[in-house]
Amino acid sequence: MRAIAVSSAHSAPSPARRSRKRVPIARAPHVAEGGEMSTRNFDLIVLGVGMAAVNAANKCASAGWSVAVVDELPYGGTCALRGCDPKKMLRRGAEIIDAARLMHGKGIEPNDIAINWPDLVAFTQTFTDKMPGRIENGLESNGVTTLHGKARFVGEDTVEIDGEGQFQANHFLIATGAKPRTIDVPGSEHLTDSTEFMRLDALPERILFIGGGFISFEFGHIAARAGSEVCMIDRGERPLKGFDADLVERLVARGEEVGVQLRRRTSLKSIKKDGTDFLVTVETGSETKDLRADLVVQGGPRRGN
Ligand SMILES: Cc1cc2nc3c(=O)[nH]c(=O)nc-3n(C[C@H](O)[C@H](O)[C@H](O)COP(=O)(O)OP(=O)(O)OC[C@H]3O[C@@H](n4cnc5c(N)ncnc54)[C@H](O)[C@@H]3O)c2cc1C
């Protein structure tokens, strides 16, 4: 999981924290006296409702704190809705294709086996569509106040949430996750991100992935098993830098066998629309080359929200 920024607006522990007792009634937010636009107070407000947030919010609520969570998107965050979980469902399809092909001549005839992309994507949505409601119900049944909107700090201990008003807390947990980093080149508006990739109606014939990180590799290998021709560019000599070098080279070699081509020391210069194609200019050392693709995916680094 990503590192989580935790900020504590007040150092004094709340009564609930001191007693460590489960205090169901105290979970209701404290409402400041006075005006209708009163600020509501909590022991803890968690910004973002991904997996990091859900665990922390539930644990603190179970310990008796008054807790609120807020997200500007449907609850569930990246992992459940736009990352690990739907990705693993797509990957399962690719694994089945791969396993069948590897057994060719060993008792399995894999000739007609194929990924039906729209059906596979629809399958992922049978999971992701239910998650926000499930997560919200789970939090509410644990006494957590659930809020919706974009949150921003307007004071040391106060956040304003679009459409909900202002809220104060003794503690804030910033669990706002990450999104794809902007690549500053001409034509970058043509880039598709991993979220859009997982919702594509159809997989195009030629896909170019920018960046040799785990998102490019996983989606590249899935797309290749679904029949696309895949190319990946990476600025460095070695992709997947955080992973074991020997294993990475084996994966790269396996990629070549199944139609995933890797261009090392290659950086993106520009993307242009050319009819239905994208004309992608890349640079390897001092050599410039134009690649054609039907889809260009930003599979590289992400930055914190
Ligand atoms: C395609 C993909 C595949 C992945 N696969 C894996 C995998 O297989 N295994 C693995 O371990 N990790 C994987 N990851 C990484 C993993 O998804 C993240 O590390 C994890 O989801 C981070 O969880 P989080 O709770 O910190 O943040 P997130 O889940 O990103 O949640 C943050 C939430 O904060 C909300 N938010 C942001 N700003 C605000 C604001 N100002 N106000 C209100 N709400 C806000 C966002 O809308 C979001 O819902 C993958 C990531 C991607 C993109």
UniProtKB/TrEMBL annotation:
* Name of the protein described by the UniProt record: FAD-dependent oxidoreductase
Q: What is the lineage of its organism?
A: Bacteria, Pseudomonadati, Pseudomonadota, Alphaproteobacteria, Sphingomonadales
Q: Where is the composition biased (Low complexity)?
A: 1-16
Which organism encodes this protein? Qipengyuania spongiae
Ranges of residues in domain FAD/NAD(P)-binding: 42-298
* Region Disordered, annotated ranges: 1-25
- Identify the InterPro entries for this entry: FAD/NAD-bd_sf (IPR036188), FAD/NAD-binding_dom (IPR023753)
